[in-house]
Amino acid sequence: MKLTQKNIVFPISSKDEYLHVFKNIYYHLYSNSNVSRAEVLIKDISKILLYCLSIDNKMIKGVSPGSILESLKKNHPNINEFFTPFELEDEYIIFVVDNLSEINIGNAPAHIIGDAFQTLVGPNLRGDKGQFFTPKSVVSSMVKILNPEPNSVICDPACGTGGFLIESLSHILTKEQQFEGHLIGIEKDDFLANTANAILEIYTQKNFQVKNENSLDITNPNLSALIGTIDTIITNPPFGAKIGIKDKEILKHFEFGYSWTYIKEKDTYIKTNQILKEQSPQILFLELCVKLLKDGGKAGIVLPEGIFGNKSLGYIWDYLRQNVQVLGMIDCPRTLFQPSTDVKTNILFFEKKKEAINKFKVSVAINCGHDKRGRYSDSNGAKVLDDFIEIGKSFPNVNGVWKEAVIKDKYYVVPRYCISATNWSNKKNYDFPVASFISIKDLVSKKQLSLRKGNEVGSEAYGTGEIPFIRTSDIINLEINYDPTKSISEEFYLKYANLQGIKEFDILMVADGRYRIGKTSMILSGMTKCVVQSHLKILRIQKEDVFSPFELLYILNQKQVIEQIRSLIFIQSTLGSIGNRLNELLLPIPEKSDSWKKQVQEFKSTLMERNILLQRLHNLTYEETF
């Protein structure tokens, strides 16, 4: 499809309008040309776009592919190696040139063009070396939070296609300030480095450099000169289990390249002289950021959650406490880098300084503008919510978006876990009058509640009988919806019946897994003959002095309690667990008013009636199900 003045407002002026043009060009080429690889298309379009921005609009039409390359090499000698021969056929090169000339691209504001083209590039390039391109709203939010100055030296040591650098410059320019600083990108992948160079040439032909180097090779003279010189670092380094750094010549120059040992008597980690066999790149990049910053410099870095909640990595936090002040953290949703990867991440912001305090700010993002399949709209066409927009705007104000936080355990620094306890003990947060609060730990110690976990029966038991084996996936909407194909025989049931001793009104809570942690349901009439999986905790009210079983289940499903449960879940890579932190859960004790009793009675009646209907339905369809 050829774009014409009939379907484009001419001249166009907004980033979205240019993005629409670029997308139409890209998808036309993807569907019709001789090239279908995203990186090849992006590279060829980049060259043509850069040419059109460099030449008077009247000289664009009728140009040949050969003359485009000659012009580029003449006008942009610093990235000559990027100007390899086109892989697109001549007719498609001319197609791109014609369409760009029709929108007078040469007279467009460079920063708008750069923004629009970067927005196209990011989602269409997928790295195979742990590179996961950061969503635009996250990039924008991080830049707003760090708020670089017009004279800043701004660096991204894992710059990819330059998204953080472009956003930083755009942030300064949109405040009607001149940028008098310097942008520095470092990127090991030569294609990404060259693409970043080209896009920054599109954006601005001065005040930047992109180094095609291994950022972690800090003995390289091109990089060692940067140590201690950077004002602002914004980065999303590569991460992943398969790309560990094994080069001892690199590892020996990093504190995190050595083994650390925990000294229990001193409650601290001490570095040994033993160089590691391998270290995760994101851990080395974190230390690299500290090394690159000048005193008082600030950084924002995306990191896997495992760094925040794994005591074996506690040495990282001992090192950081000696060198930086944590300014804030963003707790990111699981969907942030999906569908590319399911790894849970968070964002850390810090300032390089020796004297650190134990307080900072935390924001918890639930939505990131796309779902786990990468879709930006739901089935009804409504846009997926994006919390990062407001997160970036409102920092550093403590409000509904940002909360005060404190490190409760110096080796467990998961952002949502650090939110101050006062956020969970506010009586005004509930829709019913609250008399006081009590923890799960205190309920257990007062013998009001018992806690235990289920068991694993083994896959060989699946399908051997008709007795339900209740798994985490079976807890849905306060209902136990077990899978008949996983049911077990009487023989297997008897192995665990006395051990579990399931009774009516026991509450089941998902304690481990990928997504359902904190979900609850109750064993009701006709359901006691079952076995419960080990990933579920079994909660039983022993005395009803504080809560009845239905009151406890009701409270566990209040929004504020669900948010608090989420704060107690730690995720290592893709699997999460609430562990013994469930004992810290603070529950509201309601005033036992008539309105409260009415609420609970309605809740109880609804569950009981639904159970009767489900049992009846099960009996009617049981034969057919099997």
Structural key phrases:
disordered N terminus, Rossmann fold, Adenine-n6-DNA-methyltransferase TaqI, Chain A, domain 2, 626 residues, nine-stranded mixed sheet, 19 helices, 3 domains, alpha/beta, globular
Characterize the structure shown.
It is a single chain. The protein is globular, with a radius of gyration of 29 Å. It is 35% helix and 19% strand. The protein is α/β, with parallel strands linked by helices and 626 residues long. Residues 1-10 have low confidence and may be disordered. The chain has a nine-stranded mixed sheet. It has three domains: 15-108; 128-239 and 246-423, Vaccinia Virus protein VP39 (Rossmann fold), CATH 3.40.50; 432-625, Adenine-n6-DNA-methyltransferase TaqI, Chain A, domain 2 (Alpha-Beta Complex), CATH 3.90.220.
What is the class of the largest domain in the CATH system? Alpha Beta
Secondary structure category: alpha/beta
The total count of strands amounts to 24
| Helix content class | 25-40%
- Number of DSSP helices? 19
Distance between the termini: 54 Å
CATH hierarchy: architecture of the largest domain:
3-Layer(aba) Sandwich
Overall geometry? globular
Identify the strand order in the major beta sheet: 3-2-1-4-7-9-8-10-11
**Topology-level CATH name of the largest domain:** Rossmann fold
Largest sheet: 9 strands, mixed
Mean pLDDT: 88
Cα radius of gyration in angstroms: 29 Å
**Number of separate structural domains:** 3
Poorly predicted ranges: 1-10
CATH superfamily of the largest domain: Vaccinia Virus protein VP39
Portion in beta strands: 15-25%
